[in-house]
Amino acid sequence: MHAEVVEGIRASIAAYAQALDDGRTDDVVATFCPDGVCEIPGLGTHVGHDAIRAAFAGWKPQKPQRHLVVNTLVTGGAGDEASATSDVVFIQKRASGWAVELVGRYDDVLHHHDGRWLFHRRVASFL
Prior knowledge:
The chain is α+β, with helices and mostly antiparallel strands.
């Protein structure tokens, strides 16, 4: 696998996390394929840009937060599809400081489309 594939996938993962934490719904949606799927425990499965947009519009941050995505392992990458698994730690600012809210993992399938890697399927799981 070429380094530019891995870097492109990591850039998409970072773009998603930063847009999510900033409440930029359209930028979150832009990280997904038009027929992309996002599955988050307790929040449902959302298919396609319209459903993903509606879901994330309802989840805009009410206080500062960060999704810290680490240990990303990219596999595949032959052609226009690759998989990535990443650990995620979600922290949120409270009156007493930053607190860990959850720890989990993202399992992703990405497609290379118009020069960018986009989520075809993103499944979150929490520990």
